[in-house]
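Q&A log
Question type: sequence-to-structure
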Amino acid sequence: MKRYMSTALALLSLLFIIALSGCIGSNAQWSMVLNGDSRMSINESAYEDLSNCNLTVNGVNGIPLEFFLYDYGLYPLVSVSLDGKEYNWSQVTYAAELDVPFLVLPNGSVYDGESVLRVSNINVTLSEKPQRTTLEIAPSVAYALGAGGSQGLIGQPADRVVVFYVDGLGYERYLEARDLGIIENITALGEPVVAVCQYPSVSQVNADSLVTGIASDIRAGNFRSYYPSGKTVLETVEDSGKTSLWVAGRSTPVNMGDLVLYLKTFDSNGYEANEVAEEAIRQYCDEDIDLLFVHFKDPDKFQHINGPFSEKGRASLEYVDEQLGRVTDVLRPGTAVVLFADHGGHNTIAGGNHGTLLSSDMIVPIVVHVV
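Response status: OK
Response body:
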C-alpha cells in the first residue's frame, strides 16, 4: 500500500508541475537576462527562434537552457545561477542519466528537474573557450589534396591524407591518457591543437561538421539528422579525380552512402578497432585511397557504459592507440595525418555521457602530422 501511495504522490507532483508551468505568467510578456546584459535575453522571440529544439523531460516540454546559452556563445559551462539559486553543472550532468533536465518553458519559467521557477536573471560561470574549432579540418584536408579548401591546419600539399576519428576522445580524456602513458602512438604524432567542437556535443553533429566544415544549425533542428548538411570533403576529393573512403565498424554517425565501408565480421574481444585498423591498412596499401577516414568507435562505447575515466574506458583508449599505431607504421612519406575527436564525455551516475556544454564534452584535441 505504501508503494502505491508513493507512486500516486509522485504522479500528483508531476501533474502539479505541468499545470503550474502553464499557469505562471501565461498572459504576460516575459524575459530573462543573461549575465546582466540586456542584449542577451531569453524571451518569447528567442524561444520561437529555437522552437525546433524542444524536448520533453519527466513529462515536461520545453527548450533546454543550454541551447539558449550556446546561441549566445556562453560556453563551456561551469555553473548556472537562477535568480541566485546556484547549480554546479558538473553535478547537474552527473545526476542526469540522459537529458539534462533544465528546460525553459513557453511561459518564461524554468524547470530545473524538480520544480518550476519564475526567473528574471540567469548568470553563468564559464571556463576558457579555445579559439580553434573542428570546422577547420574539412577545408584543410581539401587544400592538402589540391581540391580547393583553405590552407588551415595541415598547411601544405600532401600526397595522401589519413584522418583518424577517435570517438569520444575529449581533451581532458586525452590529457589523462597521455599522463598515464597509454596513448603513446597518438602522442608521437605531436602536440594537439586544442579546439572546440560543435553543439550538441554528439557524434552525428560533429561527424557532419568534420566532413562538411559546416557549423551545426541548432535553429534548423538538423542536429537530429544523420545526413550531411552539405557537400562532404570526401565528395569534393572524388570530384577532383582522387579517391576517398570512410572505414567504419558496425555503424557511422553520418550517412555518406557508397563512400562508407561498413565492416560485417568481428572477433569476440569486444572491440571493433582491430578490424577497422586491418581494413584501413588494406585500403591504404592495396587500394591506394587518397583520402582515408578511419573511425574508432570503441572509446565512446565504453565511456557510455563505464564512464570516460573508468578503467575500461582507459583500456579502450589504450587498445585503440595500439591499433592506430599499426596503421601509422605503414604510412608512406608525403602522407598527412589528422587525428580528430568528435566530442569528449563526462561521468554520470549510470556511467558516462556527452552532449552538454561542459568543457569535458566540448573541448577536443586535433593533432596534425606529416609523415
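Response note: The longest helix spans residues 2-21.
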